[in-house]
Amino acid sequence: MRRALLPLASLAAVALLATAGPAAHAKCAAPSPFIAAPDDGVVPPEPFVFVFTPAAMELREVRALGPDGAVIGVEHVKLPGTESWNVARLRVKTATPGKITVVATIRAWGDRTWEIRRELTVALPLKYPLPRAGAPTKLKPTTTVADLGVSHYRWTCSHESVRRLGVEVLTSLGKHVAPAYRVDVLVGGEVRRTSVFPSASDRFFAFGDDKPPAAAVLALGHINCFGSSFDWRGVDAVDVRVTALFPDGDEVASAVTRVAAP
Fold first, then answer.
1. Which of 97, 123, 162, 250, by CA, is between 20 and 30 Å from 64?
2. How far apart are CA 51 and CA 133, in angstroms?
3. How many CB atoms lie within 10 A of CB 55?
4. Cα 94 to Cα 42, 65, 75, 178, distances in angstroms
5. How is domain 34-122 classified at the CATH fold level?
6. CATH of 11-20+129-260, one of 3.40.50.12780, 1.10.1670.10, 3.40.605.10, 2.60.40.1930
7. What is the pLDDT of residues 123-165, one digit of tens each?
8. Which residues have a Cβ under 8 Å from the Cβ of 106 and sit 6 or more positions away?
9. Does this chain's domain 11-20+129-260 share its CATH topology with 34-122?
């Protein structure tokens, strides 16, 4: 049984959704891989995009094509995922404005493969000119983390027990939802665990035709019809820092926040 994916106008609306019981959920579905990029598909030159793949699947190949079908170089780096998913960061090596297509080949079940595609537009000037270090304070980007409460329920096929964090990035250009977020767990001020999350776990169940949420919501714990995204065993609370990862390579980190277990 899967939670229906709804447009989210604000973090407050997300908080209401997070408290919904099993009656608010649809039928069961298996998670699928996806390519994470800006919602409108507009990226800066040599953009970073992310491929999220359920752990039961394997990313076999990535490539990018220009508008004429010519192959574009791609740098491929594996990032730390979770028990339930793997993450790859791609850098598409083109600065030429125009359409590009990112293609990922996934081993799904046995020897079966699955090809997913994402069409993007490289545009000038940069869509994400985030202020750099040393810029006036009022222009510096900020990331804030809000506790949206706990989603906890059990039903015939699965269960959910997660702490939901709403993440908002504010720059001089307005509010942003990043394609991916790095969650660091700190102990004594030092990073002990790191995982990269999508803007919402429901992206794994959108099957390529659902609009991403208007606000980022990270689910830490056991996700319904999926598995664990965060190990809470032996702890009542942890200190986390959330960093938004943008397509131009900029990273905007939050302050360290104390987060209670679900």
1. 250
2. 28
3. 15
4. 14, 10, 11, 21
5. Immunoglobulin-like (2.60.40)
6. 2.60.40.1930
7. 876 555 455 555 544 557 889 999 999 999 988 888 899 999 9
8. 33, 53, 57, 58, 59, 60, 113, 114, 115, 116
9. yes
